[in-house]
Amino acid sequence: MRTAFIRALTDLAAADDRITLLVGDLGYSVVEEFAARFPTQYLNVGVAEQNMAGVAAGLALAGRVVFTYSIGNFPTLRCLEQVRNDICYHSLNVKLVAVGGGFAYGALGASHHATEDLAVARVLPNMTVVAPGDPIEAGLATSALAARPGPGYLRLGKAGEPVVHSQPPPFALGRAIVVRDGRACTIIATGGMLPIAVEAADTLHRQNGVDARVVSMHTLKPLDVDAVKAAALDTSAIITIEEHSEIGGLGSAVADVLAQLDRHPRFKPIALASSFSAAVGDQRYLRERAGLSVSATVRTIAAVLGLKE
Amino acid sequence: MTLTPDDQRARLDGYRTLARDIRMESVRMVHRARSSHIGGALSMADILAVLYGGVLRHDPRRPEWPDRDRFVLSKGHACVAVYAALALRGYFGMEELATFYQNGTKLAGHITVGTPGVEVSTGSLGHGLSIACGLALGLMRDAAPSRVYAVLSDGECDEGSTWEAALFAPHHRLENLTVIVDYNKIQSLGNVADILNLEPFADKWRAFGWSVRELDGHDVGQLDQALRAAPFEAGRPSCIVAHTVKGKGVSFMENLLAFHYKPPTDAERDRALEELARS
What we know:
Helices cover 38% and strands 20% of the residues of chain A. By secondary structure, chain A is α/β, with parallel strands linked by helices. In chain A, strand 5 (128-130), helix 6 and strand 6 (152-156) form a beta-alpha-beta unit. In chain A, helix 1 (2-15) runs parallel beside helix 6 (135-147). Chain A is globular. Chain B is globular.
């Protein structure tokens, strides 16, 4: 995803000299070409995220469209008040980019697990929150965020994520993508859980003849309320899946919509418990322990639908 | 252009008058609103008078003029003095000052955009210098003629973020940036020297790569000379450590922690305005 991001940003920067990339001394093997090609549109501010966010605000006040890039919680939580006051309150053109959403930096430990970032970003006024589901969406989201005035948060995985979309889908911020249609239930996925959701849906079809709709909710804010309502109307159960705390992320956002409907489908959020990972291991290992694997997802959905495995 | 001694005298008198008026309006606003922070507003009145009275490239009729200088008040709690300076220079009507802190006003208790002439909202300490650095960097890369001025409190130099920005500006040779620290020596709960000592303060800025001048922050002649001399050195940001007195200009408010918090009573307001009118 980070490669898709920097490719998209490179194209944007070539076409628009307002595009500026600030990095917090991270981005080895990702940002070098950009830095060499656009020296006046790039700056490594050093290991100083509070200053990076404030400088980004100042650059945006001076007319730039600024992307700040770092990993994990550094571009968000480390400088949260600068993000809130300097960027969001002024509604400035600054997009925060975090590589390593969820457990992408698994074995590096809890300091590097970005598992509350979506909740924190969602609650900030003026903030657009995007967690693309595959590298194709990551590139499209980068361009869309650059074109959308105001603050944004782009949560990326790391590298080597499976490609879900065989070709670039129509993409608009706040408009979910139906990746696979179905009537039995709807799986709404965000970020790196999209490929898991698609594989789980394929497995359910193969094993149980169940057709699940899979929706990529790449934008968490503004949420595609219509897509949630359509799922509630068309299908009898909604399952959300996210590599994020059960508090404040996709499941919470969808629940907010469902609670206000007259007719409620069954609802099951799959998310991380609000706790720090007790185990050490890579992303796959930590996902499996947290019930975010394909097999666990299939079991959860089968239970919701009352299917025999 | 060199000024004749008469012109220079007139200029300094103009600053003194503006500073006095900023102080009087600040006292009125804080008294009327029953709000706080009058001490830190009075301590920077002379700095603002020299900026808004002569040094800043600005046009109150065109607050968005692209070539204007940018002013960032990082110590946003002392906003009454800036609101007063802006109104006195004609950015908006003087009558608007009476709405400060009231329901429905544009004039919030920490400096807030939406008021003509206000570039940046602050209120939480340690934010302003980073924003000023970003502005200066953007303007420098645009080869714009504008300078960026930021007024900091001494208290917010406790914040690590201030020093992140202090590292950044010299490294990127932001010579279009001038920082003025309103060093009034009193922070929220007491004396700076007792709470978290900043000394040797000017040396810290020097060590970080700034070109530094120390001066009496109530001497408009020194302020005028220094602010016009910036950049003090090519390729370096300029820092003025302005030694000031909290509550300056009102005898019974000077050097008193209480006036970081309490508004003047009716009688105190009258005495303050009398003293200032005589000054």
